[in-house]
Structure formats: C-alpha cells, structure tokens
Design goal:
The protein is an alpha/beta fold and 275 residues long. Strand 10 and strand 11 form a beta hairpin. It is 24% helix and 25% strand.
C-alpha cells in the first residue's frame, strides 16, 4: 500500500517528538545525576619540575536548588575527596539566581572538603557576593574575590588568583594578580577569561560556567555554549592552558543530555613552550 507524503510527514514529526520527549526524560531521571570523575593530565608551561604530579581537584556549578539536592552535592563531594587531591578549587555558581534558602545548605554540603594545600573558591554570576562568600568562609573555604594568595608547595611558591565573574578587563585582572610569580593559577568562573590570562602570561586557568552545554545534540552540538572558546575540556592558547569543567548541577531546565556532570582531578606536568 502506498504511503502518502502527508502520512509520512506526520510519522516523522511524531517520531521526532517522541525522541525529544524520551531524551528529555532520560536527561531528567538519569543524565543529570550520572556524575563522572574526570581524571586528566594537564601540561602547564613553565611548571617547575618539583610540581610535576600536583593534583588539583575541581568542582564547579553546583546550582543547589529544588532540582539539585543536598544528596547530589554530597555525592560529588565524596567522589572528589576519594581522588585525594593536593588542592581543591571551587569554580562558582553554588546556587541559582542567588536563591538565599540554598546558600547555607550548599556551603554545608561543601564543608567536608579538605586538601593539604587548601580549598579555594571563586564566585559565579549566580552567586551573591556577600552571603555566599560569608557562608563558604565560615566553612574554612578561602574565597578569592579579585585577590591573590600564595601557597608553598614542595618548596615552590604557587600563586592562586581568583576573580569574580564580572571582573573582565585586563587591567582589573592584572591588578588582582599584582606581585604573582611565574607559577600562577587563575581561577575564573567564565572561560572567556583565557584571552586576558594569555595576554598576562598566566600558565593555567580553571573555569566552569558552561555546564559543558548541558544539552548536547547530535550534529548540532552544544547550542547554548557557542559563545565560549571551548564548551568543556582543555584548551591551549599560546603558553596558557585552560580546563573547563562540565560542572555538577543544572540551570534553566533540570536535564542533561550527552553531557554528564563531573568533578575533575587534574594532574599537572611541565609543557613545552609554545612556538
């Protein structure tokens, strides 16, 4: 029996809607909670040989909310702590749209984080500058708001420079980094700050913000994150290396498709200078 063009189109539309509905259901019930531990070696320009093997734990974009539960965050904390990091970095967006009722619960869930050389945090675009910072500080997490701090690791000085989401101009970032040595790690919620970091010869940037796109479609890719230099993973620009985490939570819609949440353990090694 011949099939009319109209019948065929109806069937294709129904199949497409069914596929999208099924994908969304999978992304809601399973995809957004299928947390992965990403283990990666990062080559960093000018890294002193003594720091080869330094392990940085990175967790970002918790977005604690009615959709991202206390259990979701504590599970991520447990997975990260199991990697035994030397340093821990938190990349911002602990809640969504500054929802105050979730600030203390988010900070409390993070309170078990500890590492031999410290736990550092920066703020994202969803974070209240005062209340989120205060809640984290009370849990012995050092919040870097356009400032630099130093740690002595394996007889080598390491500078951690943390900037807020709204700190973008090269002069502002340079001011925050003033006095930093050659081994500097820039903590910046927004991965677009790799441009300023490269201009300032900062060897390493750790970021989040993109959620890896959160919904990554076949062929089309991560539509929501096309404005960023990279949606997730590693990017090298001149002598600057950046890692962008897919993050833990979700925003706008409680769904992840082809983009599982993650915590990362990054092992540093020296890199050859860019030519």
């Amino acid at each position: 029996m011949a099939i009319s063009r109209r019948t065929l189109l109806k069937s294709l539309v129904a199949t497409g809607i069914g596929g999208l509905t099924g994908g969304a259901a999978y992304g809601f019930w399973y995809g957004r909670r299928a947390l992965e531990v990403t283990r990666l070696t990062l080559a960093v320009s000018g890294l002193p040989p003594a720091l080869a093997g330094l392990r940085i734990g990175l967790m970002t974009d918790l977005h604690r909310s009615e959709w991202v539960s206390h259990e979701d965050v504590t599970h991520a904390v447990d997975r990260l702590m199991a990697t035994d990091p030397d340093v821990i970095v938190l990349g911002g967006d602990y809640v969504t749209w500054g929802e105050r009722q979730f600030i203390e619960p988010a900070a409390e869930a993070l309170s078990r984080l500890e590492a031999p050389h410290g736990v550092f945090a920066v703020l994202g675009n969803h974070d209240d500058d005062r209340e989120v910072s205060s809640a984290l500080t009370r849990r012995h997490i050092e919040v870097l708001r356009d400032v630099r701090t130093q740690r002595r690791i394996k007889d080598t000085t390491v500078d951690f420079v943390g900037i807020r989401f709204w700190t973008r101009r090269p002069a502002e970032i340079a001011a925050a980094a003033r006095g930093a040595g050659p081994t500097t790690i820039l903590l910046a919620h927004d991965p677009r700050r790799i441009n300023e970091a490269a201009a300032l010869n900062m060897p390493l940037v750790l970021s989040g913000h993109t959620h890896g796109g959160q919904v990554v479609l076949p062929i089309i890719g991560a539509v929501a994150a096309r404005k960023f230099p990279i949606v997730a993973g590693t990017l090298r620009r001149f002598d600057t290396t950046m890692y962008v985490s897919r993050g833990v939570g979700t925003v706008y819609v409680p769904v992840r498709i082809n983009c599982p949440p993650e915590v990362a353990i990054l092992t540093l090694i020296p890199a050859q200078p860019h030519i």
